[in-house]
Design a protein that fits this description.
This protein is α/β, with parallel strands linked by helices. The chain contains 18 helices and eleven strands.
Length: about 400
């Protein structure tokens, strides 16, 4: 089976995570993705682990390679008219333009969706912003920390009542947005193939934040009141909470249907007498006495180490998980058995592992094992393919001194 997007060309004018991650997924599906970068390369290209706090001398930015694998690199200084004209010539042979450039800058450079589609009505233009294109903050710069996490209430909600707002790890909202961008692009391409008409794909990080927390956002919209913070000392359902172990690790119980799993849990933790305790007879009774039950469960789990609990709970019909560190989690045998990680061969950094694409197709291999391109490695070739002369290529690739 041919790659699903084998005949699709994407021009990516984007930096950091969300839009480039969507470009990587399109490349995984077989598209030719031309990444347009500023002179010197985007910031994330240079974010080596040591600069981010890792005790490592690894010479590349692994996260950059994950989200830019399999692309071609074109460096253009869009302040120069020759560079902008060259880019338009490249776009003339593209099916998709993918960008996270702010709307005002796109207009300044003649790359706004309206201008691009007036030039080529069949073009699909996919755009990522922080807060959307229609409000007063259409041109406000944003990362997922702000638009996806803090602005949507998620930062406040993801904490216990007496704790400060929770911190977000890099790229979490961005990778969710990348999936939405990819879905929109694939849908627009399907319509284009049927009708010959392209369209705009519009994704913003704030909307993604509300969508991801939709199970809380939807009731808040319907009722006009927000959810309570989870309180592990008095949870609404003590079978859906986390408990410390003797070695300062944690066990996470996730038995949302508590009546179904209550007998099995009592046996699994060696407390069969709790099953017939009237205080805990049914979900409502456990809710009324949740503080007492939570204390019993906390004391029980504190009696053993996490490793001991893993052995003890093995084979019982309950839903739970040890709370892993990331260093432990990347060694999970289930993740490795299911191809969650890929091995990349880099010409100078050698062999290293990365996160593989988050989906697999039975008819098209998506190993995710290609590195990102070297900065500007494909510039002259891409411009030559677009029909530019040697003089035009030299002028377009010349870096402005201003």
């Amino acid at each position: 089976m041919n790659a699903p997007l084998a005949d699709v060309r994407v021009v990516e004018i984007a930096s950091f995570v969300a839009a480039p991650a969507a470009g990587a997924l399109l490349a995984d599906l077989g598209a030719e993705v031309i990444k347009v970068e500023v002179p010197g390369g985007e910031t994330l290209r240079h974010a080596r682990p040591k600069l981010l706090g890792w005790q490592s001398e690894f010479s590349e930015a692994p996260q950059f390679h994950m989200d830019n694998r399999g692309k071609r690199s074109l460096v253009l200084d869009l302040r120069k008219p020759e560079a902008r004209e060259a880019l338009l010539r490249v776009i003339d042979s593209a099916d998709v333009v993918l960008t996270n450039m702010l709307p005002g800058r796109l207009t300044k450079y003649g790359l706004d969706p309206e201008s691009l589609r007036e030039r080529r009505p069949e073009l699909v233009v996919a755009s990522l912003t922080g807060y959307g294109k229609k409000g007063a903050e259409a041109d406000t710069p944003a990362f997922d920390y702000a638009a996806y996490w803090a602005r949507t209430g998620m930062m406040d909600l993801m904490r216990e009542p007496d704790a400060p707002p929770a911190w977000l790890r890099p790229g979490v909202g961005d990778h969710a947005a990348a999936l939405a961008l990819t879905t929109g692009i694939l849908s627009a391409l399907r319509v284009r193939d049927r009708t010959g008409q392209g369209q705009l794909v519009d994704v913003n990080l704030m909307h993604i934040g509300f969508y991801v927390q939709g199970n809380d956002a939807a009731p808040t919209l319907a009722t006009g009141t927000g959810p309570l913070h989870h309180d592990r000392n008095k949870p609404r359902n003590p079978l859906w909470s986390h408990y410390p172990t003797r070695d300062d690790r944690w066990v996470f119980l996730v038995m949302i249907e508590s009546d179904r799993y209550w007998p099995a849990l009592c046996r699994a933790i060696g407390k069969p007498e709790l099953e017939t305790d009237e205080r805990f007879d049914g979900a409502r009774a456990r809710y009324r006495n949740s503080e007492t039950l939570a204390q019993i469960l906390r004391d029980t789990f504190l009696s053993r180490s996490l490793a001991e609990w893993e052995k003890e709970l093995l084979g019982h019909t309950i839903i739970w998980s040890p709370v892993r560190t990331l260093a432990e989690a990347v060694q999970d045998p289930e993740a490795r058995a299911n191809g969650v990680f890929a091995e990349v061969e880099h010409p100078t950094a050698g062999t290293f592992e990365t996160v593989a694409p988050p989906l697999q197709l039975s008819g098209h291999a998506m190993p995710g094992d290609r590195p990102a391109p070297e900065l500007g490695a494909d510039g002259a070739d891409v411009l030559c393919e677009a029909g530019l002369s040697e003089a035009e290529i030299a002028a377009a690739l010349e870096t402005s001194s201003g």
